[in-house]
Specification:
The chain has 264 residues and is an alpha+beta fold. It is built from five helices and nine strands.
Length: 264
C-alpha cells in the first residue's frame, strides 16, 4: 500500500490533513488499511463539523439571583430578600438508580445453534433434574434455547427448555416430518407468573414455608398433545420400538469410559 498524498486545498475551503503511512521495512507498513481509514475519517469529521462560536457574555448585564418582596405586618420588617431559584427542601441519601437497558439487549441478539441440532434428534441431557435422560429435540426457540420432550410417557421428562451447552447430540433421529408443534409453546409459555406473597401473622414469622411447583392444567393438556405427536412420529421411524427403548434408558459412564472417545 503506497503512502497517501495530501489533497490540494480549494479557495476558501479547509482540507483535512491525510495521515501518511510509512514503511517500517521489508514491506511492513506502520498502520493497517483499517487503522488508516479510521484516522482519516476522524480528521475529516473534525473538519466538517465546525465548532459553534460561543457568544461572549456582557459583563454589564448581571444575573438576577435574589428579589425583594414586600411583606405585610408591623413586626415583619416590611421587606424581605428572597431567592429566585429556591433550594430543595430534601435531598436523597442515595443516588437514584438509572434504568438498565442492557437487560433487554440479550433477547434481540441473533442466537446460533450447532448444525447437528436438528428437530427430531435424540439428545442426552447433562444438567438439571433430568440429567442422564435421553430426549427428543422438538424445535429451537427464539431465545436460542432448545425445546425438548422425553416424551413423558416413556421417561417422565416433560416439555422443557435447555441450553445447547448441556446436551450431547446423538446420531439417532426421530422422523418429525409433518408434526406441527403448537405455536403458543414458546419462551413466554415457560415464564412463571409472580405470585403475591400473603402477609405473615405472628405465628408464621419464624415458620419456614416451602412452595412446591405444580404444573397448570394448560401445561398438562399440552403435554398430552405433544406426547401423542411424538408417539405417532416414533411409529413412522425405522425401528421405532428400538428407539423408544433407547429413550427409556439412562446414560451413564462405566470405568475406563471417556466421553471424548465415544461415538453417540
Amino acid at each position: 500500500m503506497a503512502p497517501t498524498v495530501a489533497k490540494k486545498a480549494a479557495k476558501g475551503k479547509k482540507v483535512a490533513k491525510v495521515v501518511k503511512n510509512r514503511d517500517l521495512g521489508s514491506g511492513i507498513l506502520r498502520w493497517s488499511r483499517y487503522k488508516l481509514k479510521q484516522k482519516n475519517s476522524y480528521r475529516l469529521k473534525n473538519v466538517k463539523a465546525a465548532k459553534p462560536v460561543k457568544a461572549k457574555k456582557d459583563p454589564s448585564k448581571k444575573v438576577v439571583v435574589t428579589v425583594t418582596k414586600d411583606i405585610g405586618g408591623a413586626k415583619n420588617g416590611g421587606k424581605r430578600v428572597v431567592k429566585v431559584i429556591k433550594n430543595r427542601a430534601s435531598y436523597a441519601t442515595k443516588a437514584k438508580v438509572t434504568s438498565r437497558p442492557t437487560r433487554n439487549y440479550f433477547g434481540k441478539h441473533v442466537h446460533h445453534t450447532r448444525r447437528t441440532l436438528v428437530p427430531g434428534k435424540v439428545l442426552i441431557l447433562l444438567a438439571g433434574r433430568h440429567k442422564g435422560k435421553r430426549v427428543v429435540l422438538l424445535k429451537v426457540l427464539k431465545s436460542g434455547l432448545l425445546l425438548v420432550n422425553g416424551p413423558f410417557y416413556l421417561n417422565s421428562c416433560p416439555l422443557r427448555r435447555i441450553s445447547q451447552r448441556y446436551v450431547i447430540c446423538t446420531k439417532t433421529r426421530v422422523n418429525l416430518k409433518g408434526v406441527a408443534i403448537p405455536e403458543h409453546i414458546n419462551d413466554a409459555y415457560f415464564k412463571r407468573a409472580d405470585k403475591k406473597k400473603a402477609r405473615k401473622t405472628e405465628g408464621d414469622i419464624f415458620a419456614k414455608q416451602e412452595e412446591k411447583y405444580t404444573p397448570s392444567e394448560q401445561r398438562k393438556k399440552d403435554q398430552i398433545v405433544v406426547d401423542k405427536l411424538v408417539r405417532g412420529a416414533l411409529k413412522k421411524t425405522n425401528q421405532g420400538l428400538l428407539v423408544s427403548k433407547y429413550l427409556k434408558s439412562f446414560f451413564a459412564l462405566r470405568n475406563h469410559q471417556y466421553p471424548h472417545r465415544l461415538r453417540f
